[in-house]
Known about the structure:
Layout: H1 3-13, H2 15-28, H3 36-70, H4 74-97, H5 102-107, H6 109-123, H7 139-142
Helix pairs in contact: 1-2, 3-4, 3-6
Amino acid sequence: MTQTVTKQILYETDLNLWLETVISQLRSGDLENVDIENLIEELDGLAGRDKREIVSRLKTLIEHILKRCYVDMPNEFRGWEVTIRTQRFELEQILEQSPSLKRHFIDNFDKCFKVALQNVRGEYSQYPFLDTWQFSRDVDSILTAKFWKI
């Protein structure tokens, strides 16, 4: 078996062992034996994962802000506010670790708002949600402001 085939088999059969092997090779400077193709694939996947998580959490955050602002169901306020705090915290953690993802957050805001608006309108069709985001689009405001009244 060639070394390339062996690397591929390890990658496909035991991802954790493959990762440990690659990390060990990188630490020891054994760059000649590093499985570059799969390492690139994994790194690309990691970058995409964080971007997908930003979009998913931002959509959920917007949905719950919209519910809290427009849906008059006081018994639900606490749950929505808990979700808002949780999503904000998780988004802050991602952006703290990778500040360059703020651009991704901003670039995807309109798409997330559109999907969130569709979702809350489907769930609460009797409430008049506005067609546009009525608040600041500043990342820090979205992650901290209390857009609803008491």
